[in-house]
Amino acid sequence: MALIKLGPMVGGISGSIAATTFARNRAGYYARARTKPKIPVSPKRDAVQARLTDVINYWKKTLTTPARLLWTQKAAQQVFTNKVGEAYVPTGLNLFVRANTQLLATSQSIVTVPPVTPIAPILAPVLGWTTLVGISITGIAEFDSGLSGDVQMFWTLSLPLSKNFYKGPWDTAYDTTIASLASLPLLLMASTSLIPKTRCFFKFNVVLADGSTSAPMITYCDVGATP
Q: Torsions phi, psi of 128, nearest 5?
């Protein structure tokens, strides 16, 4: 593995060029030989691919030309960030796929009109654990539980207490309506599924009914020997 020191002409690099893959870790940027990963066939992967295919086909075969123009115009007003932190402007198809694949993933309906803003508010829940109950959402700060849409929840349990950061893979996925956050506490994991003195990580994505999505929020809750 070769380390890379970037100069003034190149500020960041990610992905593959020919037989070399560039990436970054805590030590900095590095290069390694490119390998073709073997992606296992799974129901989850098939479902993701099916949703992507359905949305792209909808854009091509069902969405009207005026509607595609609306998405293109809205996309031209947006600025997103890529893996190396650079800003870019998406295409209309990019924005349509971004919104509707998430809607289908939460069993919501495809939208044909772009959302006013593609960025939904972030859910930063307060998590609490007790011996008898387990891990629950006990608070949602100023998040509006009256919004129309769903929350995607992902979690991985029983990690070491020394682990301070986790980005996946996630063992479990679960969807709930935003309306369910109006009645707290909301149980996420029963105590019978938890191992004492471990750390459980959770990720939350908000997907509003208009197609806007939030940035992911990753947090954790510790499971102790006593409440």
A: -135, 150
pLDDT per position as a tens digit, 38-68: 555 677 788 889 999 999 999 999 999 999 9
Instruction: Give whole-number Cα distances, 198 to 85, 168, 192, in Å.
Output: 33, 17, 14
Query: Does the structural domain 126-223 have CATH classification 2.40.128?
Result: no
Tokens at 36, concatenated: 């073709």
Domain residue limits, the chain? 2-33, 43-105, 126-223
Q: What is the pLDDT of residues 75-98, one digit of tens each?
A: 999 888 776 677 888 899 999 999
Taking the model in full, what pTM does it have? 0.77
d(CA 225, CA 227): 7
Work out the angle at residue 94's Cα, subtended by the Cα atoms of residues 178 and 143, and round it to the nearest 5 degrees: 20
Starting at the edge strand found earlier in the chain, the sheet holding 172-177 runs: 172-177, 149-159, 198-208, 217-223
